[in-house]
């Protein structure tokens, strides 16, 4: 008589999952302040929200996202300790757009096989990024899916919750004629457009270990550059009265113009001057290596601008000075004005993206 099938024989190793938790728990605890109760391993993460009593009208903000096909680069390079920054950036920096402070986050990792050291490396990166953002990592889940994912494949996702006082809510309602756009530099590709980038690299036949002089490092190292996490810096900038922050936009999928249009009120148009910055080398590489049309580049990649602050007409100098204090490279990107042609069809204008009927964006001139 043969032994019956076991969960381990089916491809799921619960002991490996326990080992992964042991390896990651110190990094997770490092994100916990006194508001986090219960530590690591509970069924639910607990967060003491007593501070809500100090709010007049608290609004909760929430966001969820993943890393996309950038995980394929991490898997190919067998380097997993930076992908967490991409996850946290994609999630908490959407929350800060409305002026909300990201309070806590949870993560989810699906994999074909639990390799404790690999899972712990991913989670340590998430925890380190949460520390940068000032956000507690209060829970997560690792799921082993043999037969659905390959043994060395995984995907990551996360969700976060934040809070903002209603009177401090940022967005289209605050944007005014004459406002100035302040660009905040990206650290590179961040975590969007990797399907295009990977297709370009594959078409060119370039290996990830190829040294690229224009990048100053290997191709793989450039493609794995972690996403800049803006949350703490954006909150600090918004808290500075001299900066007069009216809105933020997080430049992710869809590119600069499409995301900026979402935070402008109907009847307003932003003019973005391409000549105000020089395309970083990685974006020039993608353009030239793949002969990618400018329209595709602009609607897919951030092109060096990861976040945009919309500030008062007389506040640009103060906003730039505060960004410099925070160590965030920034510059004047353009301006906002009443759109006298609102509602008319214009080939050079981006509007109506993500199902939002709001403002519009026009890009002018050429990149330096």
Keywords:
368 residues, alpha+beta, seven-stranded mixed β-sheet, four-stranded mixed β-sheet, globular, purine biosynthesis
Quick description:
The chain is an alpha+beta fold and 368 residues long. The protein has 2 domains: 11-168, 60s Ribosomal Protein L30, Chain: A, CATH 3.30.1330.10; 172-364, PurM-like C-terminal domain (Phosphoribosyl-aminoimidazole Synthetase, Chain A, domain 2), CATH 3.90.650.10.
Radius of gyration: 22 Å
Count of spatially separate domains? 2
- Count the DSSP helices: 11
Topology-level CATH name of the largest domain: Phosphoribosyl-aminoimidazole Synthetase, Chain A, domain 2
Decide which structural class fits the backbone. alpha+beta
Shape designation: globular
Note poorly predicted spans.
none
What is the mean predicted local confidence, pLDDT?
Answer: 93
Tell me roughly what share of residues is in helical segments.
25-40%
Note the gap between the termini: 75 Å
What does the main sheet amount to? 7 strands, mixed
The counted number of beta strands is: 15
Order of helices and strands: HEEEHHEHEEEHEEHHEHEHHEHEEE
Beta strand %: 15-25%
CATH class of the largest domain: Alpha Beta
Strand order of the largest sheet: 10-12-7-13-11-15-14
Protein described:
With 368 residues, the chain is α+β, with helices and mostly antiparallel strands. It folds into two domains: 11-168, 60s Ribosomal Protein L30, Chain: A, CATH 3.30.1330.10; 172-364, PurM-like C-terminal domain (Phosphoribosyl-aminoimidazole Synthetase, Chain A, domain 2), CATH 3.90.650.10. The protein has helices at 14-29, 70-77, 83-95, 116-133, 194-204, 219-223, 231-238, 255-261, 281-290, 294-298, 316-326; strands spanning 36-37, 46-47, 58-66, 101-111, 136-144, 154-165, 180-185, 211-212, 217-218, 245-250, 268-273, 305-311, 330-338, 349-351, 360-364. Strands 10-12-7-13-11-15-14 form a seven-stranded mixed β-sheet, with helices on both faces. It has a four-stranded mixed β-sheet with strand order 3-6-4-5, with helices on one face. Residues 176-340 form the PurM-like C-terminal domain. Belongs to the AIR synthase family. Residues 60-164 form the PurM-like N-terminal domain. It catalyses: 2-formamido-N(1)-(5-O-phospho-beta-D-ribosyl)acetamidine + ATP = 5-amino-1-(5-phospho-beta-D-ribosyl)imidazole + ADP + phosphate + H(+).
């Amino acid at each position: 008589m043969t032994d019956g099938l076991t969960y381990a024989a089916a491809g799921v190793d619960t002991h490996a999952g326990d080992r992964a938790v042991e390896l990651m728990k110190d990094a997770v605890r490092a994100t916990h302040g006194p508001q986090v109760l219960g530590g690591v391993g509970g069924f639910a993460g607990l967060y003491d929200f007593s501070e809500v009593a100090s709010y007049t009208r608290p609004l909760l903000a929430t966001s969820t996202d993943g890393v996309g096909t950038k995980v394929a680069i991490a898997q190919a390079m067998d380097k997993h300790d930076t992908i967490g920054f991409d996850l946290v950036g994609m999630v908490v920096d959407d929350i800060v757009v409305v002026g909300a402070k990201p309070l806590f986050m949870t993560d989810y990792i699906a994999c074909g096989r639990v390799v404790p050291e690999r899972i712990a490396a991913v989670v340590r990166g998430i925890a380190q990024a949460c520390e940068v953002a000032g956000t507690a990592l209060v829970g997560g889940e690792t799921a082993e899916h043999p037969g659905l994912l390959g043994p060395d494949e995984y995907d990551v996702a996360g969700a976060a919750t934040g809070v903002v006082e209603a009177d401090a809510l940022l967005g289209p309602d605050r944007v005014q004629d004459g406002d100035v756009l302040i660009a905040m530099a990206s650290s590179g590709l961040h975590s969007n457009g990797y399907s295009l980038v990977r297709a370009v690299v594959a078409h060119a036949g370039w290996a990830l270990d190829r040294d690229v002089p224009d990048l100053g490092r290997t191709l793989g190292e450039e493609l794995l550059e972690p996403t800049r996490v803006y949350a703490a810096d954006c909150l600090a900038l918004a808290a500075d009265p001299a900066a007069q922050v009216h809105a933020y936009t997080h430049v992710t999928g869809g590119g600069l113009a499409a995301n900026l249009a979402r935070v402008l009120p109907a009847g307003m148009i932003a003019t973005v001057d391409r000549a105000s910055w020089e395309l970083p080398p990685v974006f020039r590489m993608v353009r030239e290596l793949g002969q990618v049309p400018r329209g595709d580049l602009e609607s897919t990649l951030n092109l060096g601008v990861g976040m945009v602050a919309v500030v008062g007409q007389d506040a640009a100098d103060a906003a730039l000075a505060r960004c410099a204090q925070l160590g965030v490279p920034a510059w004047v990107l353009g301006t906002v004005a009443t759109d006298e042609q609102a509602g008319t069809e214009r080939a050079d204008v981006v509007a109506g993206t993500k199902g939002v009927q709001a403002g519009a964006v026009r890009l002018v001139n050429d990149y330096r």
